[in-house]
């Protein structure tokens, strides 16, 4: 079958099932109900504290073939996934599905668990490092499921991703299962990505290294959803949450792109009282927020809220009165961790509230604008942030597709060349975010506007911006760097890229080494 972005996808895929092809960003309408976990009882005097993970495995009991879930609020500092899988291996468990919201280099031990048959399926929103490389070269027999952050919450709530046991890294917990992310030696900030799992998993285990007196306050995840509490020596290193650059870039080219992006936002009429925006970590993205902030100061206006991976820069904007609120599903540095624990206007939100398209309204729908990056963008404005120039998986949508779909204006902020390769191509290797949800590409050599947004193009021209056809930018890139060689892949599908609505937007095929 050919889907709405022109990708040929199978009608049925072993290890995945029947395929529903992507039909458009808002074409698929849900015909389903939310699932519900089993009703339980905890009698007076019954303790939830267990001595170790092995005891948890025995009491549940965890069996072959179950789905265990984990979360990435520690990013590359996470210690819980490796700890739990080491326990599963010691106990001789096999054929587990691991549903982890993101995979990082720290999770390299997962490779051996796959080779040994402990883990036979993987469901995630983002992958980088050794596991991603091994998957790209065919490590797993089943294709990896790659979702968006909102799509994962949707799949959990709607019962498409059924979790048997959720293991939640809890920086602070009491003995009855109340947990938060803002206290303890491993404080990491928002626990937003763990909230859907806590609400819908059959069993929930809080793994903590900081046990507090009951009742814990504040509470991010309630005792009513936690079945077991395990005290361990360490759940992770909060320094590992720092993602990419969390400072405004000093690169002259990056600054020029960011300044142009801010001018695009101004020309679009969005520098106004109550502006809302999302940005993530990354020097150029934060630089765009910096220039937008300068424009806000000059105009004497305040943004209603900012969303995204929260950094110290956005915290500073909140403290300076440029933002009224921050809505935070995940902290990207330790300034964000400190702020969410102390500032009542810094709000913790769940992944479902952030970006699930199948509820009564998620936060991304309230965004005026979002500034996003790209590995590649094609002449139809489709964006790839899943695979790199070598064809290996090096990322994934995360909230990219979700924010692009929700925002009034979506900007892709990118250098025309990545390394020595053009960013603009005829067809991206992997479609992560469909072009219909992307409005503007901003580069150091000009701005391209999606033909769907003729209204926006006229505004940018009137503001004196250098507006070019995206094919013109592609030609300029190729004059500088040449036409890149086509990546060689086999027919074997190693990962499925699902759009936020559960349809198949693309697949990743096994890379053939030269």
TrEMBL record:
Domain of life per record: Bacteria
Reactions performed catalytically: citrate = oxaloacetate + acetate; citrate + acetyl-CoA = (3S)-citryl-CoA + acetate
EC annotation from Swiss-Prot or TrEMBL: 2.8.3.10, 4.1.3.6
Keyword Transferase: yes
Keyword tags: Cytoplasm, Lyase, Transferase
Single GO MF annotation: citrate (pro-3S)-lyase activity
Cited SUPFAM superfamilies: NagB/RpiA/CoA transferase-like (SSF100950)
Localization, UniProt: Cytoplasm
The protein's name in its UniProt record: Citrate lyase alpha chain
Organism: Sporomusa acidovorans (strain ATCC 49682 / DSM 3132 / Mol)
